[in-house]
């Protein structure tokens, strides 16, 4: 912004202002721009040192109401007000603020900064453990990945201390005795606002109270704060909407979030595209796409991401006499059914469903895509069953479409893959556990027990089969993607294509840094660089994290090639066309079998029992017609068509790869 030039008020301008009901103890402390016109400054008291811009335009408000810019019925103390702001009906005063161009402040109680403020930066949020010790110091550009390290890498205290020092330095750097209301902000019919900074084009309407925080709105993705909202000790990022009497205290709200319908949140962090309606959050780490829509739903002292909480879902972190010290982990993509209950500490595996009430400390991390259900007061585990659920496929397709972020600077880096080294490594572990249970208890036992959970015989066999299919589906996908990127003309070309580009990602655990899937050794290198001062700023940490995210598929292949060797029994750098054909055939078989299961699962949604309640006043024909017009016909339904298209494309791709390999074998045979 070009710095404006200011001058003292002329005597005739002072006279006009006085005639228009304005007052100042010392008019020499008020400066104005060269082309200042006093016409639109009325009934205003000035105290302290103030600077005023030009007020010669109109602003159109909701409903088409047009109002002149200027200052009417206000008390202004130590403020700079830029060109064509509109300030009217301030009941108390505005103190210590820089107010940008074309800002609208209409019907406000108070806006003030007292002493030096960091505007919410540096506030320590007690996530996951309600008693503390996993605090995250929040700041304007906090990502879910840095927050994850701050909360969960307490075994690396030196790195934590360095990052916290970076945050403290940033908080001190941006601290000021003057707040800012940036260009284009609208503040209408609001209450008390103290020690807040508001970014460009934010809309605040009917807000009750804001205390000590920052609203990082931007022109491309404005923030909306609405009726009855109270925010204390907060940072809200671009594209977020907080409305309808929502109460937020000690929280970070990331990009594209929605907190609405009387939601209550305390000591929590929410990252990209989270939604909270009606319910309550206490000391949670809500990774991207954590969603709670229902009344009486409590999320407490846990880590969540890509999670959908059913109505009345609850967790308990207060079992023993030492206080609420327990925590829970709900891995990405999990759901809770209505009235579910989980006793912390527990850990729920990725893309799983929890139904019923579970009073044991469940740990299903090695059983992704499972059901954990209550039956006869027992926790029943149904491994891998969600791999054949059309609902999981629908979820994976809807998440990218529901990314509300429009800011060019995305803080959270998101990998939407259902099958990745993160989930496949767990399937490998789960399959091994199921095989060990089978070996230990025999193949005819009606039930098997694992960590207090009961697994039926049929569920165990199905789990082994589904995990094997998913593993081969992933391995084949990874191998074929690798081959497709190269021009394969010889046996050596195959081996070159299947060689690793980097050792990173190989033979290590894979992590979900709440949105970003990555190998643990890459994160270990990052942590070491922070500890030894190779990385010296928050910006450099973010750049390193982005590099890890962008190299996901390179790291994925390093890991997948090792697993292919484990499952196929031969290193990929020794592969011949025969080996590629065999792995591709295993891949095709697995893909098509899983797709057929998904197809059958989708068909259930069109069964006769699902048509109950349709065609209310007619016979069976009317019922069918009503159902078809509301839900659509099975064969033409979008999800069903998508499955058929997927099957056709994958079958075509598999035949294409096999055809290439067969031609190579034929060429080699001619040479010999």
Describe what this molecule looks like in 3D:
Among the domains are: 1-112, UDP N-Acetylglucosamine Acyltransferase, domain 1 (3 Solenoid), CATH 2.160.10; 124-174; 290-401 and 419-478. β41 and β42 form a beta hairpin. The protein has a 29-stranded mixed β-sheet that branches. It has a 6-stranded mixed β-sheet with strand order 1-3-5-9-11-15, with no helix packed on it. Strands 32-35-38 form a 3-stranded parallel β-sheet, with no helix packed on it. The chain contains 13 helices and 44 strands. The model has no long low-confidence stretch (mean pLDDT 93). With 672 residues, the chain is an alpha/beta fold.
| Secondary structural class | alpha/beta
Give me the count of strands.
44
The amount of beta strand, in percent, is 25-35%
Mean of pLDDT: 93
Largest sheet: 29 strands, mixed
Percent of residues in helices comes to: 25-40%
Number of helices: 13
Low-pLDDT runs of 5+ residues are: none
Spatial separation of the terminal alpha carbons: 74 Å
How large is the radius of gyration? 30 Å
User: So what's the overall shape?
Assistant: elongated
Oligomer: single chain
Key traits:
672 residues; alpha/beta; 33% helix; 6-stranded mixed β-sheet; 29-stranded mixed β-sheet; UDP N-Acetylglucosamine Acyltransferase, domain 1
Briefly, what is this?
Among the domains are: 1-112, UDP N-Acetylglucosamine Acyltransferase, domain 1, CATH 2.160.10; 124-174; 290-401 and 419-478. Helix content is 33%, strand content 26%. α11 runs antiparallel to α13 (638-671).
């Amino acid at each position: 912004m070009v710095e404006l030039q200011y001058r003292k008020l002329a005597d005739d301008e002072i006279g006009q202002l006085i005639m228009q009901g304005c007052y100042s103890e010392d008019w020499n402390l008020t400066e104005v721009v060269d082309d200042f016109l006093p016409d639109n400054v009325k009934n205003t008291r000035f105290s302290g040192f103030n600077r005023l811009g030009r007020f010669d335009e109109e602003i159109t408000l909701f409903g088409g109401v047009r109002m002149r810019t200027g200052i009417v019925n206000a008390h202004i103390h130590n403020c700079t007000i830029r060109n064509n702001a509109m300030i009217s009906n301030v009941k108390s005063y505005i103190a210590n603020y820089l107010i940008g161009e074309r800002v609208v402040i209409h019907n406000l109680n108070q806006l003030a900064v007292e002493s030096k403020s960091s505007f919410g930066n540096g506030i320590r949020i007690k996530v996951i453990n309600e008693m503390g010790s996993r605090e995250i110091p929040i700041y304007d550009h906090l990502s879910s990945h840095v927050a994850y390290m701050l909360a969960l890498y307490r075994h690396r205290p030196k790195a934590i201390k360095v990052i916290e020092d970076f945050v403290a330095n940033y908080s001190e750097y941006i601290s000021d005795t003057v707040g800012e209301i940036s260009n284009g902000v609208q503040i209408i019919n609001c209450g008390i606002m103290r020690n807040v900074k508001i970014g460009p084009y934010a809309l605040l309407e009917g807000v009750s109270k804001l205390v000590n925080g920052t609203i990082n709105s931007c022109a491309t993705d404005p923030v909306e704060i609405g009726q009855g909202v109270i925010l204390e000790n907060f940072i809200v990022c671009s594209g977020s909407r907080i409305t309808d009497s929502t109460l937020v205290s000690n929280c970070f709200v990331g990009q594209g979030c929605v907190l609405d319908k009387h939601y209550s949140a305390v000591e929590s962090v929410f990252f990209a595209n989270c939604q909270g309606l009606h319910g309550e959050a206490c000391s949670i780490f809500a990774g991207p796409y954590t969603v709670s829509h229902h009344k009486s739903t409590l999320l407490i002292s846990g880590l969540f991401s890509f999670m959908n909480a059913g109505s009345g879902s609850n967790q308990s972190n207060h079992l023993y006499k030492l206080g609420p010290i327990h925590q829970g982990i709900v891995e990405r993509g999990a759901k809770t059914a209505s009235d579910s209950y989980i006793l912390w500490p527990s850990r729920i595996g990725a893309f799983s469903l929890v139904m019923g009430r579970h009073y044991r400390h469940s740990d299903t991390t090695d059983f992704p895509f499972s059901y954990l259900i209550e039956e006869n007061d027992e926790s029943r585990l149904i491994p891998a069953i969600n791999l054949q659920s059309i609902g999981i496929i629908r979820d994976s397709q809807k998440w990218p479409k529901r990314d509300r972020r429009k800011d060019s600077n995305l803080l959270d880096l998101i990998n939407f893959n259902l099958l990745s080294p993160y989930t496949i490594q767990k399937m490998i572990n789960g399959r091994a556990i199921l095989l060990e249970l089978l070996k230990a208890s025999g193949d005819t036992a009606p039930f098997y027990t694992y960590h207090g959970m009961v697994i039926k015989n049929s569920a165990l066999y199905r789990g082994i089969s589904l995990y094997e299919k998913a593993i081969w589906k992933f391995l084949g996908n990874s191998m074929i993607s690798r081959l497709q990127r190269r021009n394969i003309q010889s046996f050596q070309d195959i081996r070159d294509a299947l060689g690793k580009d980097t050792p990173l990602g190989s033979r290590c655990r894979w992590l979900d840094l709440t949105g970003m899937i990555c190998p643990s050794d890459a994160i270990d290198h990052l942590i070491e660089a922070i500890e030894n001062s190779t990385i010296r700023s928050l910006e450099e940490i973010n750049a390193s994290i982005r590099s890890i995210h962008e190299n996901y598929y390179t790291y994925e292949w390093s890991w997948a090639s090792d697993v292919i060797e484990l499952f196929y029994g031969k290193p990929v750098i020794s592969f011949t066309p025969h080996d590629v054909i065999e792995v591709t055939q295993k891949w095709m078989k697995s893909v098509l079998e899983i797709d057929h299961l998904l197809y059958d699962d989708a068909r259930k949604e069109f069964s006769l029992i699902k048509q109950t309640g349709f065609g209310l006043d007619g016979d069976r024909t009317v019922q069918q017609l009503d159902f078809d017009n509301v839900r659509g016909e099975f064969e033409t339904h979008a999800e069903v068509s998508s499955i058929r298209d997927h099957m056709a494309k994958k079958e075509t791709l598999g035949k294409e790869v096999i055809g290439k390999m067969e031609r190579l074998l034929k060429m080699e045979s001619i040479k010999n």
